[in-house]
Amino acid sequence: MRIFFLFLVTISTTLSVTGQNADRLAYIEKFKDIAILEMRTHRIPASIKLAQGILESGDGKSYLATTANNHFGIKCHTDWTGKRVFHDDDEKGECFRKYKDPAESYRDHSLFLVERGRYRALFDLEITDYKGWAKGLKAAGYATNPKYADLLIRIIEDNQLYLFDMETGITELAGGSFRHPSGVRFTVVEPGESVESVAARNRVSVRRVLKYNDLTYESVVQAGDILYLQPKKNRGRQKYHRVVSDQSMHDVAQEHAIKLHKLYYRNRMSVGMQPNNGDVLHLRWRKKRSQMNN
Asked: Which residues contact 154 (CB under 8 A, 6 or more apart)?
């Protein structure tokens, strides 16, 4: 059993080293939370995710990043049905995926690695083995640059991105399930799975899985989604959550292992209402009426 402990440091302060590139620091600050969230749900090191984003997008300034929100240089391939943009790369006028926002690019990058067999061996590595991941990505053909692994490792070490890999607080249990920092057992939906197959795999009734995750029989799950196998908590471990990337109330409830109706109650919101980006949601105590516009 492998246990990943919270690293008790203030990472934002640690990263603010004299002489660091301002654009790079801004990129790290902007996307570190998304990278950590993706690490929690897909077991891709946040350091690798950020380093690839930095390298592939030129600190978020590249043509693909600014016009298509594509931070990882992922091409269309035959299975892509979404929007696209054409750009010169190894060949002239190649097809690249276009996303509605960077968060969608980060999520699709995770699914791109999870769903392709050539990257499967990487998920057997320790979450802190960023060097193994960097070398494995190059060996699996993610990039043609022969120095790709070295470039990723240098970005990670120069910016101390490896500190983010210690931010999961998640315990891996036997049988492919995990324990959330709040103590609730969960699993991650694998490609092609449904609620029914997840329930069967974990020997939990479908009714209970739906109840524990605030879902209905009509709900559809996607690869990478978290499904709890025990009742979620009435309150969060953290005090607050700032909404990013068009997160829904259900998204926040799943991230923090909180019952959805309790999240609505604590924030004095009617069931069905959704927050706006930048809103601060209360996770532990009920928001005061005087705070309703904050």
From this structure: none
Residue-wise pLDDT for 246-284, tens only, equals 789 999 999 889 999 999 999 999 999 999 987 889 999
The enclosing domain of 195 has a CATH number of 3.10.350.10
On whether both 19 and 61 belong to a single domain, the answer is yes
46 within some domain: yes
Q: Is residue 172 very low, low, confident or very high in pLDDT (cuts 50, 70, 90)? A: low
pTM, to two decimals: 0.54
Asked whether residue 139 falls in the same domain as residue 250, the answer is no
- For residues 15 and 161, membership in a common domain is answered with yes
What single-letter amino acid sits at 115?
E
> Do residues 164 and 175 touch, judged by C-beta distance below 8 A?
no
Burial label, 88 (beta-carbon count in 10 A; 0-12, 13-18, 19+): exposed
Does residue 24 belong to any structural domain of this protein? yes
Higher per-residue confidence, 24 vs 224: 24
Q: What domain range is 286 assigned to? A: 240-291
| CA gyration radius, the chain | 20
Q: Which residues contact 12 (CB under 8 A, 6 or more apart)?
A: 29
Mean pLDDT of the chain: 85
Neighbouring C-alpha atoms within 13 Å toward the C-beta of 272: 0
